[in-house]
Fold these 3 entries.
Entry 1:
Amino acid sequence: MEQGLLKAVFIAAAAIGLMALSPTGEWRKGDPAVDKCTAEYAAIDAAVQQAGTTDAEYARIDGFPYFRLNRFLASYDFATLNAAQRTEWIDHLVQADKDERAIEIGNLPATKRGELYGRLERDPVTMTKACADAVRAFDHQKPEAHKALPPRAVVEATDAAPPKSNARTPEQIAALTAATAPPATGTTVFEPMGTKPMSAYTVKLLVDQSRSKELKIPEPKEEAAERLIGSFAPMVSVTGEPDDSMVIPVWKDGKIASEYNAAVAYAKFSQARWKGEPVLQISYFIWFKAQPLDGLIWRVTIGPNGTPLAYDTVHTDGSNYVLLLDGSLKAPGAAKLPEIPDGSRLVLSIDGETHDIRHMGAWDGVTRDNYLLVEYDRLRRLYHHDGETRSLFDATGKSGTGPNAPRQWAHHKLDNGFYFDAPDLLQKLTAVK
């Protein structure tokens, strides 16, 4: 009994000390099962915070420890959703928290995971799944919870401004998609392994089939995800030594380093809004051998007809943003999309020293090397040592220190004041309603 009492005291103390991380809803008092879950959430947060494995990709919601959200989910107006749409929206918030906690708990040192397991008397990941269902069902019956949720479902813009970007001149913007690429020596051309571009019809079909029932959010899974990522993956032509580009970030001797066991690009789906409808985006993260680590993000926004609506790119520290648009759209400083014939693949010509894109267009040459496409989330579970894992990013969404440190998804604040993951970024830049 004494041992059980000590465990209860520990969990209660964690709940009190971690109110800023997972506060108890003021309407959620007195139910033993819900109180237990709330205390267990706080105990997990305490262990994660102490070990430094907090993940910053999704934002927490005060009073709702089983919810997390991103800017796209936060863009929904709860008041305008019908009952079925609200249920689906909440499903996304619950799943986001489960995914985040699985990463945070998985990155705990083995000894800390064991201690947490002993204190909770059940597996922490299993506990989060069970408690999400229990607390959600309880809150669903409480008008106070429905009233409290919408104003708290926000993502704060707390990231520092990015380093000063190298503004491109109008001539440099035009040269990005000029008919003739600038001459380059010492280039290595990488091609995505085992993939081929698809027709716009097939792309549209796969995207539409992946849409959720109520909110029509495109969320490709499994084979459809692989085909879409492979279809839009660019060729990559980089000047300099081949081992200096498309590297793999790793933890080595307690620091972030890079390896060239294979050329790799990390791919991630996201969603944006275009004329009121959700559209699919695919981002490709390319890393370079540099100290500190440096990288480039290349993103395609897929239009309703299955063709690219826009391309944009930014360095992983949030600097040097460049936008390319369909010929029917205009924005200050934006270039026109390059013309890519059906069945052809886009090639990005990148300066191996500055890591800036110099040119882009259709590829018609000979490749020298292949690269692998892997999911972006692997960066949040990098091998650390002795079978343990650790994220590339810290609890603030940065990797390393200094103004040029790479930032995690959802933390790329652009020099125009917008966020790279803002769902209305394209609409704001083009002034399209």
Entry 2:
Amino acid sequence: MFLINLIKIFLRPQYWLIFFKGITKLQSIKSRQYDIIFFFPFYHIGGAERVHIDILHAIPEARKLIIFTNISRNNKLLEEFSSKSAILDLGFCLSKKYLNFFVVNLLVSTVNKLNPIYVFGCNSKLYYQILPAINPSILKFDLIHAFSDNIEAAEHWSLPVVKYLDKRALISHKAIQELSELYISNSIPEEYIKNIVFISNGINVPSTLIEKKYSNERLDVIYIGRASPEKRIKIIEKVSSKLSNHDIFFTYVGFIPDEVNTLSSNSNYLGEINDQDALRELYTNSDVLILSSCREGFPMVIMEAMSYGCIPLCTAVGDIPNRLENNKNALLINSNNELEIIELFSHKLIQLKKDILLRKELSLNAYEQSKAFDIKTFNESYRDLFKIA
């Protein structure tokens, strides 16, 4: 297999060039010292990527290297990652099966020679593949954003290498429970459950709530996120279509493929937004954040929206019902039936449009609850994880 791959590389000059570029990048970092090497998949816009940047912010004095292992859709967050850490983008090299073998072996050798205090991975399948080959003296951590039943997810990729992980950070108590149950069902010793720690995501909460322009003539609803299957964005599209004559307007923000984006007349698609001022203005001018996911951890977008007084209207999945209170600071839908979810979402939105007093009460309570998500706790947790005083 080694000789076959070598021959294939020689027969493809473009791969040969890419291979040497990857080697050059790996060689360029060998003369430096790092406290932590991170393995992240992407630097495009996304909630997980924002959390990864927040981790870098939490430990500014640590010497950091990020190895990106997958091909990103765009480079909109690359500059922000680069400002906080040295970076090594191997996504393209690792995506080519004829180069992958060589690059992975060079990567393992390089990491071991650098001998950082910690390696830390999230959502990178490669990270779990190379863990057994990493020096035993290097502490190995990972982060899981949300638990999934899909076998193509980190909690399942990682099962064969659980014994190599010294700490596992999860953002929701529900996910910790589900991961513990997965360990038990796969006969993983209980001692490894003790390595799981809870670290909630965090946000910068505005010092005061910016009051909204409440009107029973109009209700503004936002969806922010990608259109992956678990988000079930089609449910929201059906709700918007159902309410097209009720002066309830929907704005979609995020990466939404054209085949999904069949929006009704009361809907607007803004695409991906990286400008934080633009996002803050969008939150300020919106009344409701809507999410119809079949699974979640506890989304960053809920915290951010609540800090600007947006009322979460969500399916009660993941840690959402554990951290929000229905009819007090959020509206939660306990149903797995899509037709029922559409009806309940529609009913709640019509109710909010008509009842301004209810809307004001929920909005204020959402803002007050958002103070529990302050970024200071997040920063302290990661500084403690990496033993930074």
Entry 3:
Amino acid sequence: MTTMDFEPLTVTVPLWEDPAGVFRVGTSRVLLELVLRAFRRGETAEGIVRSYRTLQLPDVYAVISRYLADPVPFDEYLRQCDKQAEALSREIRASQPPGPTKEDLLARARAKGSIQ
């Protein structure tokens, strides 16, 4: 039986920050959270690359490998993304004028004769 000696391999996780606190994968502009959420939903690395054509398969595998080795910092990053998204959503909702209520919409439909 033949054995092979492999040198230890160090793989750089291909992430870059743009703007501060927002991570993108490889040389693409695809957000890290999109790749991680797709993987957590059960997508394969190949499926993720098909969804985001600017990604390179080795980059996606490197990110997934690093995530599997130690998910804690990535999970914290995803929690921060969710928190920021919820804050932004609240801010947008608060800045919008109030829309018509369900009763207003029904009254308009009745006035047009759309409903009885």
